[in-house]
Amino acid sequence: MRIDVLSIFPSYFDGLTLSLLGKARDAGILDLHVRDLRDWTSDRHRTVDDTPYGGGAGMVMKPEPWGLALDELAAAPSASADASRPTIIFPSPAGEVFTQATARELSSRQHLIFGCGRYEGIDERVFEYAADLGEVRLISLGDYVLNGGEVATMAMIEAIGRLIPGVVGNPESLVEESHEDGLLEYPSYTKPSSWRDRAVPDVLLSGNHAVIASWRRDQQLERTRRRRPDLLPEEDRSES
Ligand SMILES: Nc1c(O)cccc1[N+](=O)[O-]
């Protein structure tokens, strides 16, 4: 998979050279390029914003640098032999909500382009223009206000990247995680078996894998009912 990121703060993404994603980049599994949007400006001040038509506080990101950048990146060779159009993602509080299902869907794409907005947002015509270059998705991490798209992009790249085959050493570990089966994950324990007068649940020391699996499932349902009843079907939401 190829991922391009457009931002006026490219160093935000230095963390993507670390850990599993950094190793995946070194191994050629993930082809990730972070670019400074200002590289597509032509004035001395490398201007990317201007005042909003219609008035209002703040500044809006100009369309010209975005148009030039997206033209270039959308034409970049992606991992796949076929010249499939890229998926162009703009993190936005006005977007669809990002879930594990979204991460799984996007992890099978060949070329993702993330456009990180700043200020009061990006000129609307950029989203319209981008639709001529690829599939455009406005995606939100949640209903709160961030200063720009960079943090959301980091989160999405991690959630998507770890699902790409070969990135996580043991694919089994991807299965038993929160939200993978629609439920929150069960509690985990490791040595010592007793710590500050707190013991590991006996069932986990029993060696009876069927009983352990059943206990873990019960824990998932109980936690999900208590913390995230919205994830459960209506009929399963009340405490039994
Ligand atoms: N919430 C928010 C924002 O305020 C700005 C950019 C991106 C997001 N988001 O993805 O959730």
Automatic annotation (TrEMBL):
It catalyses: guanosine(37) in tRNA + S-adenosyl-L-methionine = N(1)-methylguanosine(37) in tRNA + S-adenosyl-L-homocysteine + H(+). S-adenosyl-L-methionine binds at G117, L141, G142, D143, Y144, V145, L146. It is an enzyme of class 2 (transferase). Its EC number is 2.1.1.228. GO terms for molecular function: tRNA (guanine(37)-N1)-methyltransferase activity. Residues 220-240 are annotated as: Disordered. Keywords: Cytoplasm, Methyltransferase, S-adenosyl-L-methionine, Transferase, tRNA processing. It is found in: Cytoplasm. It holds the Pfam family tRNA_m1G_MT. GO terms for biological process: methylation. Its main location: cytoplasm. Residues 1-233 form the tRNA methyltransferase TRMD/TRM10-type domain. InterPro entries: Alpha/beta_knot_MTases, tRNA_m1G_MeTrfase_C_sf, tRNA_m1G_MeTrfase_TrmD, tRNA_m1G_MTases_N, tRNA_MeTrfase_TRMD/TRM10. Specifically methylates guanosine-37 in various tRNAs. HAMAP family: TrmD. Homodimer. Belongs to the RNA methyltransferase TrmD family. This is tRNA (guanine-N(1)-)-methyltransferase.
